[in-house]
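Deliverable D5.2: sample structural annotation.
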Amino acid sequence: MENELYQVKLTDIFEGPMDLLVHLIRKNEVDIYDIPIAMITEQYLAYLGWLESMNIDFAGDFLVMAATLTQIKSRMLLPTVAAEEDDEDPRMEIARPLAEYLRLKSAAEELSRRALLGEDTFVRQPVEARDIVPRDEGFIRIGLFELIDAFQHILKNISAEDRLELTSDSISVKDRISELVDLFEEKKSLTFEELFAGQPTKSDVIITFLAILEMVKLCLVRLAQHAQTGLIRLFYD
């Protein structure tokens, strides 16, 4: 019952399996047509294992992609028989849809940057409108997997002797969201590190991370990363 209090569902909210694959390829700086399939598959499965350990519910599509990567890895480990196998690289099974996905994603991002009909004519803004990610300050939008990387970095700085304890006395995700909203009301934006000021325990960090995920799902905050420094900042909507 207690675990249910800390479960976050990512289905239809955050990025899908292709986005995780893109994240890993960019992170490792590899060519999509020359993917080190064993390494990428291992890292992909590690991400899924980590999400599961955090009690984060993800869509079945992630498991389908994991199975596809594992199958391709297995095929590449087997000796090819000229009479039975064609000459195509097994990695093309994932490289082609990945290239098409990147092409469509790039086109969608380009369209999103264009002015919508009437946007430049009706310039009056709602009274309650808040600042969004400032494009002129070198920030770029980021997603779940960049946030996970930053979160794991925070955890590495916590002593290994600090045991994870999510008890009935621990602050709930709902309560942590309320605390974060109060902080954002004052400052409008916070760096990722500012969320973990002082000496937080593993429990504190995990509850804060789950609270951030919920706030992103509820469209309360936007995530952005400085293109030069890599600093992650959360903007309150």
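Annotation notes: The chain has seven helices and six strands. The chain has two domains: 1-124, 130-237.
The annotation will be released with the project's public dataset once the embargo ends.
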